[in-house]
Structure prediction request, 269 residues.
Amino acid sequence: MSLFNIFNVAGSAMNAQSQRLNTVASNLANADSATSANGTPYKAKQVVFAATPVGENGATGVQVAGVVEDPSPMKTVYDPKNPLADDKGYVTLPNVNVVEEMVNMISASRSYQSNVEMMNTTKTLLLKTLNLGQ
Amino acid sequence: MLNRLDDMLNFHAQALRLRDQRQQVLASNIANADTPNYKARDFDFRAALSNALQGNPAQGGTTLATTAAGHLRGSTALSTQSFLQYRNPAQGNVDGNTVDVDAERAAFAENAVQYEFNLTRISSQIKSMLAVIQG
Prediction:
């Protein structure tokens, strides 16, 4: 039965999407963190998805191939009163693009929903198959 | 006699098996809606079904040549691989992904209904067989 494998496929996708959502949350929470544990400003993080075979019948799930740091330039704000400001009075702020992160969040949650629905449909089909001939 | 009973069920049983496989392919497409460079796939149901009905067990899947009794033949249960094709994308995507989620979800729902149809048909065939047997 390939239908059972759909649970693995959808499950892997849900896992990947929730990790993406996690990254979005971390980015949004740290959108203004001018310093972090290692003393440098927070850098936006992005997950990289990769297709991965699940089971033996050519089904393809999703895995998170890695979490990369956003290479875009950091924001700088002129704020000489801030203790973190450099000698010219500029503070370096994270390169988190809040609008982009919101879009990312909606996209991730929609994809997650699609996968949940897929699982529900599959469950219905399997239960109906169980009742075959009754 | 039993052979005929089997023949009666065969069409929908094969169709059911292929619907099962197609559901999995479509599920893979939806799951990978956000994966860069993933290409959406599907198979020609009509061709796969007519091939299955001709009683081709491997269904075009290649099997390993065996020259001695102990050789492994590999899996012949695998079926629709040779029918899998890549979808033509309606709209290109910058990340190389060709999944159109709406189309895939529509196909997924359609395939689920067709699966249920086959189930219902098999059920009613079993019922009519029972009616004939029990008189």
Q: What stands out?
A: The longest helix of chain A spans residues 98-130.
